[in-house]
């Protein structure tokens, strides 16, 4: 661990360290928390999220599984229903599709189909998104599939402190949570993270940057991109508000709608393919809830409607320039 | 289900073919490992140093029209099947002259002319595709066999069972080839599989388990399996035990695996056999090595001067 303590009760950490810290904290707090997945045991995961947990808590609390995504998630559902708090890791979100059936057909429907007799308090953690030159199958952003499935919560942190607080809240939640980790910023910058107990409630967005002229809605690795764009726009005299959604389901509609009512303009930024991405839902909500406040179209700056590319990643991922062009479009109305 | 004995009656031409392909794969892999840290390749690479005999012994019996479906560890089998070296290099360099036009990368090598319809980075993902190719052949699409080529950990995925069952029920012309290097990343087989791969496969189809570091043994068993599949006798399973000398991904040696050249190196073993039976002289072996080095130099030069894919295609 390279984390350093700055002041009592707080440490400066990377996001991946904060995730590790959240797992360790909750494993200490609650014996029912069990962490498992491919290579998460002695190796500590391909990105190191579970580093040291196997050694500290032993084979019954943190262990390796076969290369069987469907089996991993299915076993997690069974554990959750019978009183455990499973935290399963899917090595890359791109590998989750063999488990899609278990997630959509079993985990997500457990509470509803049992009339509330059962809940499924399970977390599926998975690194997602581009930015590490991983090519087609180590880069995708498929959050929208899960948002489209009633019964699942979908959480995406963008800072180390939020990663810890949101992960602990997700583990404590009674429902299945897809906890998607923007791997591009795993080690991007460091931030202060409270030691020990630290939760961030699900369903509350964060105003990452306050502004008055235009709202940027983002999550995950797109939040720092939007913050950089906000800085650049400020030089042109535009005051930009950046809202970090933090949880896509449940969504903090109130914060979003209030921000857009205030600024009258909105750009939605996400790295997934544009069509039917989460940004489409945000645009629809704004149209329903505050169209009379809009002074320009809601603009989507997103990935492209192609599979994630191999050598063209730098063009595919929304960057500061594309966000600025998006802002311009909201003013060109 | 018996271990095949090396076929010491192999003809010189055949032995030379096997040696050339294995050397091409080995020397190319070693060059990739050397270049990789310089960042000229924007793609993860899963090298197959030490595993050359499996793909080579198999592909000796495959025709261009036979369809070989691969997973993530692709370079060796693709070269063995006939993918031109320059097209592999250009693909690794992300150039438009690459076998997948610079859109694939290491894990997605494609060469329709040589029966490489594609490969998937999703472990187990392409096993079913080999079955589909066999079914297509059965239904009149052509005279070829479908080959599913995968590692030991792929047998943990549900699609493995589904595919074997489907192929066996319909007696399809399909070959399943398990390149068992005993590891899934850092996890040894004993920690990822409770089942015995040969035991499972042999419930559904004829299965041979072979020393996959002995190219003559692979060549022999593959010859019989391919001709049975071609001859309408249904799917066949080859289980080839081998060793992965490198880390799961990237250019470094793996420190979990003990390698004894005399025992484990397929190239060393074949060269020793050929020399002792008078098929090659030391001089010929040295010439072969340097001819392949020149081929690799030329392929890299080709890749370096090739253009990158047209970024506008993405906007389409
Ligand atoms: C569905 C899926 N799960 C996990 C991975 C990550 N992964 C890539 S290769 C690999 C190990 C595969 O082992 P094996 O099938 O034995 O092939 P080998 O790497 O040994 O050639 C893992 C876990 C993946 N690519 N796809």
What does this structure look like?
The complex is a heterodimer of chains A (333) and B (316). Helices cover 35% and strands 21% of the residues of chain A. Chain A is α/β, with parallel strands linked by helices. Chain A has two domains: 4-194, Thiamin diphosphate (ThDP)-binding fold, Pyr/PP domains (Rossmann fold); 206-331, Rossmann fold (3-Layer(aba) Sandwich), CATH 3.40.50.920. Chain A has a seven-stranded mixed beta sheet with strand order 4-3-5-6-8-7-13, sandwiched between helices. In chain A, strands 10-12-11-14-15 form a five-stranded mixed beta sheet, sandwiched between helices. A three-stranded antiparallel beta sheet of chain A has the order 1-2-9. Chain A is globular. Chain B is α/β, with parallel strands linked by helices and 316 residues long. In chain B, 44% of the residues lie in helices and 11% in strands. Chain B contains twelve helices and eight strands. In chain B, the strands form two sheets. A six-stranded parallel beta sheet of chain B has the order 2-1-3-4-8-7, with helices on both faces. In chain B, strands 5-6 form a two-stranded antiparallel ribbon. The relative contact order of chain B is 0.18. The model of chain B is unreliable at 1-5 (pLDDT under 50). The structure holds thiamine diphosphate (TPP).
Short description:
The complex is a heterodimer of chains A (333) and B (316). With 333 residues, chain A is of the alpha/beta class.
């Amino acid at each position: 661990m390279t984390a350093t303590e700055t002041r009592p009760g707080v440490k400066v950490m990377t996001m991946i360290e904060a995730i590790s810290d959240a797992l360790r904290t909750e494993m200490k707090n609650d014996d029912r928390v069990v962490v498992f997945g491919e290579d998460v045991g002695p190796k500590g995961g391909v990105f190191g999220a579970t580093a040291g947990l196997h050694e500290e808590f032993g084979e019954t609390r943190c262990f390796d599984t076969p290369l069987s995504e469907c089996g991993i998630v299915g076993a997690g559902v069974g554990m959750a229903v019978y009183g455990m708090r499973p935290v399963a890791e899917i090595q890359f979100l791109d590998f989750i599709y063999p488990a899609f059936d278990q997630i959509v057909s079993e985990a997500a429907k457990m509470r509803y189909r049992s009339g509330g007799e059962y809940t499924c308090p399970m977390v599926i953690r998975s690194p997602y998104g581009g930015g590490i030159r991983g090519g087609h199958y180590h880069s995708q952003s498929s959050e929208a599939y899960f948002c489209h499935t009633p019964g699942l919560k979908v959480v995406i942190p963008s800072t180390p402190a939020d990663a810890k607080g949101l992960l602990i809240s997700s583990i404590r939640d009674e429902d299945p949570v897809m906890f998607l980790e923007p791997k591009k910023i795993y080690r991007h910058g460091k931030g202060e993270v409270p030691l020990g107990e630290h939760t961030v409630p699900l369903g509350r967005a964060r105003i990452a940057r306050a502004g008055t002229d235009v709202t940027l809605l983002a999550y995950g690795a797109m939040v720092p991109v939007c913050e950089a764009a906000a800085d650049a726009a400020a030089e042109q005299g535009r005051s930009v508000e950046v809202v970090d959604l933090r949880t896509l389901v449940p969504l903090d509609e109130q914060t979003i709608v209030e921000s857009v009512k205030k600024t009258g303009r909105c750009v939605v930024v996400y790295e997934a393919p544009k069509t039917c991405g989460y940004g489409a839902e945000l645009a629809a909500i704004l149209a329903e809830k505050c169209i009379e406040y809009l002074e320009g179209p809601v603009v989507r700056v997103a990935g492209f409607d192609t599979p994630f590319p191999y050598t063209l990643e730098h063009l595919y991922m929304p960057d500061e320039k594309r966000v600025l062009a998006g802002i311009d479009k909201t003013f060109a109305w | 289900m018996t271990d095949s004995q090396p076929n010491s009656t192999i003809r010189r031409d055949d032995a030379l073919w096997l040696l050339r392909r294995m050397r091409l794969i080995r020397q190319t892999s070693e060059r990739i490992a050397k270049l990789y840290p310089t960042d000229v390749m924007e793609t993860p690479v899963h090298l197959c140093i030490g595993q050359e005999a499996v793909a080579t012994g198999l592909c000796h019996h495959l025709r261009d029209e036979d369809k070989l479906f691969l997973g993530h560890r692709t370079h060796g089998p693709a070269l063995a099947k006939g993918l031109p070296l320059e097209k592999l290099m250009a693909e690794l360099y992300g150039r438009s002259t690459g076998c997948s036009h610079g859109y694939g990368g290491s894990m997605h090598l494609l060469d329709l002319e040589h029966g490489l319809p594609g490969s998937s980075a999703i472990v187990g993902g392409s096993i079913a595709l080999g079955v589909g190719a066999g079914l297509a052949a059965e239904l009149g699409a052509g005279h070829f066999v479908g080959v599913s080529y995968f590692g030991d950990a792929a047998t943990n995925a549900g699609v493995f069972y589904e595919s074997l069952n489907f192929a066996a029920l319909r007696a399809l012309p399909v070959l399943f080839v398990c390149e068992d290097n005993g590891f899934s990343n850092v996890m040894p087989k004993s920690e990822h599989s409770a089942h015995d791969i040969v035991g499972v496969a042999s419930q559904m189809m004829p299965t041979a388990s072979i020393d996959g570091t002995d190219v003559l043994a692979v060549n022999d068993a593959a010859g019989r399996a391919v001709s049975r599949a071609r001859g309408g006798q249904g799917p066949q399973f080859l289980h080839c035990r081998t060793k992965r000398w490198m880390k799961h991904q990237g250019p470094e040696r793996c420190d979990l695996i003990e390698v004894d050249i005399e025992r484990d190196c397929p190239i060393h073993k074949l060269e020793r056999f050929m020399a002792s039976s008078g098929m090659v002289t030391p001089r010929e072996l040295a010439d072969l090595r340097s001819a392949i080095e020149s081929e690799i130099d030329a392929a890299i030069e080709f890749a370096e001067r090739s253009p990158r894919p047209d970024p506008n295609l993405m906007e389409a």
